[in-house]
Amino acid sequence: MRVVIAGGHGKIALLLAQRLTSGPDIEVAGLIRKPDQAADLDEVGSEPIELDLELASVAELTDAVRGADAVVFAAGAGAGSGAGRKETVDFAAALNLRDAATAAGVGRYVMVSSMGTDDPPSDDDVFSVYLRAKARADKAVMASDLAWTIVRPGALTDDEPTGHVTLDRHVDRGEITRADVAHVLAEVLTRPATSGHVFEVVGGDTDIHAAIDDLVAG
User: The pTM is what?
Assistant: First the structure.
């Protein structure tokens, strides 16, 4: 299996690449904006592909993901960015990746979204704009013919992984380590039955593999 991660230099993306490439028969590539980010991808076994998601055409993005079995949208404008970049990265780039995946025949799309996107606030706060952009991107991906999964983590931390979560369509607000989110994404990518599911996830008491079992069984 070949997986291409948009936002390949992000913390979750690097943790996901490291987890995926530690197993057999999985190749990972990451889309990055800056050439000096390539060494970090090399370190975790991910092939760096230099491509700015805000500037690249759908055709260029299609070429970048061609031959992949799955794409993961793990890109984000970042906490310090303004409302405009929430639109160009969190919404528009996610749509371009959807269209590129469709054109390249990739088929599988995993979205790293956010809790709060079911009913995002309508004010002009930058975080509210972010949630609305993510909500629109989620809906656009879900309306496609791709085999999609929408993963909506709670507040992210850099704590050590626990291997345990609370995971369901809706869960109470809480925190989750980025490493545990990466673990969840890896499970999703290797479990085709997770296609068509939207779920929220925070730290909890259920083993991640068992939590995914419960999701697909339900």
Answer: 0.95
